[in-house]
Specification:
Layout lengths: L1 E9 L8 E7 L4 H4 L2 E7 L7 H16 L8 H20 L13 E7 L2 E7 L3 E6 L2 E4 L5 E3 L5 E3 L12 E6 L5 E5 L1 H4 L4 H10 L4 H14 L6 E10 L5 H8 L13 E2 L2 E9 L3 E8 L5 E7 L7 H14 L22 E4 L3 E3 H7 L5 H20 L2 E2 L8 E4 L4 E3 L6 E2 H4 L19 H4 L6 H17 L34 H10 L11 H9 L13 H4 L1 H24 L1
Antiparallel strand pairs: 1-12, 2-3, 3-4, 4-5, 5-10, 6-7, 6-11, 8-9, 11-12, 13-14, 14-15, 15-16, 16-17, 18-20, 19-22, 20-21
Helix pairs in contact: 2-3, 5-6, 10-13, 10-15, 14-15
Amino acid sequence: MHIQIGTFSDKGVKAANQDSLGVHLGEGALLKTKGIAAAIADGVSSSEHGAEASSACVLSFLVDYFSTPETWSVKKSVEQVCTALNGWLYRQGGTQTNAHRGRVSTLSALVLKSTTAHLFHIGDSRIYRLRQGILEQLTADHRIWISAEKNYLSRAMGVDTHLQIDYQRLSIECNDIFLMSTDGIHDYLSDNELLSIVLSCKKDLDKAAELLARAALEKGSPDNVSCQILRVDELPTQQADEVFNELTELPFPPDLNEGHILDGYKIVRELYASNRSQVYLAIDQDTGLKVALKTPSVNYDDDPSYIERFTMEEWVGRRIDNPHVLKVYEPTRRRRFLYHVAEYLPGLTLRQWIHDNPEPQVEAVRSMVEQIAQGLQAFHRLEMLHQDIRPENLVIDAQGSLKIVDFGSVKVAGIAEIDSPLYRSNLLGTKNYSSPENLADKAGSNASDIYSLGVICYELLSGGKLPYGALPANKKKIDFNKLRYIPCRDHNDAIPSWLDDTLRKSVHPDPIKRYHELSEFLYDLRNPNSQLATQDQRPLLERNPLRFWQGLSFILALLVLGLLAAMNS
């Protein structure tokens, strides 16, 4: 992305300038993953430390935003930054007891990432967009008018512990111009005047910003006058062939066999192979460490979407540090081929454990589910969805600890915001474990991963059964409205009904009616939740066939006895 910037700020007729503004461009990879951030703030003049408040708003926003994880979406990043900033301003200002001594400011912020503009706003500073000769105000002033002459801010940073900030996102086009101003300018210049001045100086945005401020002062503005202008000259768009060339910069490795050496890794043996990848046990010749080396399958050497997902596996793994997630190592030597290296985990998959332990104790299952959940929480804290939690992707190591080992379907919120010519499908999970929304190729949420974990918990407790039975092989033929939960107690009557109710909620077809937080699910696995108590509405023949036929036989016996008595009378 290439932009031009123009800024100007002046105290005007006031003794001091309580406005602040600034723009920060992400450096290196951050320009792609975090974008460009701009902010403008106006310290409230009735507060003693308005200038400090506005300066803190702009500086903290521009610095802290780029310190948030690259995996986070823009919205989550800014909300976290602004919430922390607002709390700090409120505590430092002492607004609880003496409002005029507070640190209070407006804040309007703009993040340009990929081909999208993200707007955040609280107060009465403004953000406009000029596109094709039309000026549009994008923010709404948070003011309450007492009379035609008197008003006050209904929202501001630092005035309350609760922060309500407006957010919107919109697409960017080349030559879009964003104008950010404080009320000392836009309260004294009409939209036509703003438009005329900006258009007259499109090639010199610093001059345009200064002319706006001077014009407002000439119109009698008694306030500080500040504005900044950003013009988008070039968007970071790529063609499919450009992306493919970038992804294939490293070639696929050759076939590997015992004794082969690849970039300093000596192959010991093949651990796993499928039509999508191969995993080898290897030894790092520099350190002697045993590692797992994963290579892509040559079946997909011309598939850019596959290569992107393979590359993202390493990117994701290197950003997670959790005892229940496979550790992916950062390369220490130059690579000549496409592969990634992770810790070697001797052990067995949860699938094998289920086969070997058809009747586990409930407490053992709880412990396993809690370990998987701890690993999933590491993904969710970074705003990632795993999307393929299943027994084959869970390994029990030599110490009995469960680890999530595959990241090929992970969706990263911050990366999903970056425009790409490649199609990114949500349809990446495994049929019986993927949530209905993922199977329908719809966007998922934390509740989608909870669904998968709920299925695994059900499977562990039921001796290998599934909550809806085996689903059709063709995902398109699944009618999610007709799915009927099979109580886990049908397979294991040692399970208490309240625990079955917990499982039912965790795998509900409707994500809205499912658990949204892993902590809630884990709590209900150990504690009866009276709000979940349900009555099994299925016919008795389905719920308890033995009791049905016993009852029917009893009734028939009574009828026979009655007929015999009638015949003998």
